[in-house]
Amino acid sequence: MKRILITGGAGFIGSHLCERLLNEGNDIICLDNFFTGSKDNIRHLIGNNKFELVRHDVIYEYSAEVDQIYNLACPASPVHYQYNPIKTVKTSVMGVINMLGLAKYCNAKILQASTSEIYGDPLVHPQVEAYWGNVNTIGIRSCYDEGKRCAETLMMDYHRQNNVDIRIARIFNTYGPKMALNDGRVVSNFIIQSLQNQPITVYGTGNQTRAFCYVTDMVDALIRLMNSDYINPVNLGNPAEYSILDFAKLIIELTNSKSEIIFKELPSDDPIQRNPDITLAKGKLGWEPKTPVKEGLLKTIKYFDKVLFENK
Q: Which sequence positions are flagged as catalytic?
């Protein structure tokens, strides 16, 4: 049994992680400022004597005695991280400094939720951890991309300078129940539009590619990485690659929707290809995703159908 701090614990991935680690018998501190997280995601855990919910913003110092820290705090969809880009950078940089300081003080392991966005619009495909990326430092996505890149730098420097025990997870597109209705990402947008028989919005030609990992697989990967002894960045994602257009058609099929596909201009710096090489995760963690995309999508569609019905 461990005492585990999860920042961003009321968010999409964070809430699933809280539940899994709590079910394994650990004491959980769920830290969230509720900018994108929701109490609804963790409401069923409140009242458990091993679960503590703290409303707090990681850009300010926080103190607790813990064994492990999962630093997931940061808005992760373009809609949310571009809403207040300066705050996004502060969350990534000041947040990880505060959490690394706490890890140093407690002699705790710390896992940083990094992102596939650190590769920018990649010139290497699929992306391997050794690739340094192709990132615009002054674009509208830079607050997130560069904030996460700086966070990785800080993780490595705290390890080299202060011997902090670090883990770095480069998370690729993840989906599943508890995604927010206003998440603004491909899976939630397409499912909601399809369930309501609204036009599905595809940006650009739809030939750009993405890879989608079901949330329970991602949680398993994060826990395996935390409990490993590997300190360098690891790609975590599902290497099954879809074009955005084919993905839209798949969701229309699975929802039996009457939605039509409409095309709009591609946003600035939107990556053309995004797909993880997970050779390292397989070798170091013995991990690869188990949930087929169609199976995961059906579970996610069922979740959103229920939420939309309850919000009528």
A: 144
